[in-house]
Amino acid sequence: MKNLFPLLFAMLVATETFAQAGNSGNSESDSQPHAIVSQMPEYPGGMDALRNYMITEVQYPPEARDKNIQGTVIVRFVIDTTGLVTDVSVVTPVHPLLDDEAIRVCKSMPRWTPGENEGKRVKVYYHIPITFVTEEDNVKAKRNNKNKSKKKR
Q: What are phi and psi of 149, to 5 degrees?
């Protein structure tokens, strides 16, 4: 039987969502989340701390691991004007087991430094891709990347 160990890569990238109901800051209502702001929200300690949080807190669901369910769940949430994570939802689902875990972890994040636009705190959309992959597949991927690098030389 394969000895599969969960390995999580949290590829964390703030993305701008132009197709969403966000606004660019010149709006009648600042109650709507913004997609583009002059100062994006920041996780306490920065991106490295956010990666560490995800790696520490995400638990690969045993049933998903046993069934070799893998993939990247893209989660969208709003950082409100006080830094709280709200309105967590899955933008790109993989499987309910992985989707639910990604939502759980995002909902449990500590307060962020809120985003600002024109010096005023505003709600901001934020996206995080969370990749679930087994250790065995991660080793294969690393080997393939290493071989590709050698061929380019």
A: -65, -40
Mean pLDDT of 133-144: 65
Residue 122, SS3 per DSSP: strand
d(CA 152, CA 148): 6
- Residue 62: strand, helix, or coil: helix
127 contacts 5 by C-beta, under 8 angstroms: no
Fill in the DSSP letter of residue 86. E
Domains of the chain: 6-152 (3.30.2420.10)
Dist. CA 95–CA 83, nearest whole Å: 29
Res. 139 pLDDT band, cuts 50 70 90 = low
For residues 108-135, give the mean pLDDT.
95
Closest CA to 127 of 85, 87, 81, 77: 77
